[in-house]
Amino acid sequence: MSNLLKLAIVLLVILIGVSNTIYVVSEVERGVKLRFGQMIEADIEPGLHIKIPFVDDVRRFDARILTVDAEPASFFTIEKKRLIVDSFAKWKIANVETYYKATGGVERVAENRLAKRVNDGLRNQFGTRTLHEVVSGERDLLMKNITQELNNSVRDELGIEIVDIRVKRIDLPSEVSSQVFRRMTAERNKEAQELRSTGKEKAERIRASADRERTIELANAYRDSEELRGEGDAEAASVYANAYQQDPEFYAFMRSLNAYKSAFSNKGDILLVEPDSDFFKYLNNQDVK
């Protein structure tokens, strides 16, 4: 075996030894050191560390805030109304040693246990509240209470801290939704019909008021026009009377001429009048001046 090959083997052994001796824990990780499966160091600080090769084992876990999305579950309110609730929780590792002992460091195991506890907590909170309270009235208070209650248990049992719990969606069961929607539709149709009836009633009132005002205005206008016409006719009659009083014979002559004009305006008309009638007074009496 050549010296070069020996040197390469030695360097390879040294490299393997160094790689199994030095390890790094990043800022976003938490770690524990195991020796023959037994924990000898918990919550290793971030940075560069040394371990015994092939004897010690280092397990690293994500120290950031994680999300567990629980499966939708069925809960009953205090009114015995069943709801389908979809929720999620934000959590992080609070105690590395407790977390590892409780879950074996498997994130999926921690999420399953936490999801079950979240659903149990929501079931207890929903069971003491009405539908209105859980949907809108006291949702923030409900989330705050369940977060505090769960943190009191999971911190000691699972080494986990719950940062926040939120309800994404609350639905009625499918067998109830159709009935509720039909009832809501009927109520809305009833409300719409009432609004239409009220609108029609107001429209009729406005139309009747407008017609009444129109009739009153027309009557007043007709009255005023008749009064003005009467005043005009009276004034005209007075003027004519004053004028004709100055020469009554001339007035009678003018009236006869107007009568002749009207009587003989149409050539097809036939007029039967006695010759000595007053109608021909001015035609028969040539001495009239």
UniProtKB/TrEMBL annotation:
GO terms for biological process: proteolysis. It is a single-pass membrane protein. It is found in: Membrane. InterPro entries: Band_7, Band_7/SPFH_dom_sf, HflC, Stomatin_HflK_fam. GO terms for molecular function: peptidase activity. Keywords: Hydrolase, Membrane, Protease, Transmembrane, Transmembrane helix. Residues 20-184 form the Band domain. Belongs to the band 7/mec-2 family. HflC subfamily. PANTHER family: MODULATOR OF FTSH PROTEASE HFLC. HflC and HflK could regulate a protease. This is Protein HflC. It comes from SAR92 bacterium BACL26 MAG-121220-bin70. The lineage of its organism: Bacteria, Pseudomonadati, Pseudomonadota, Gammaproteobacteria, Cellvibrionales.
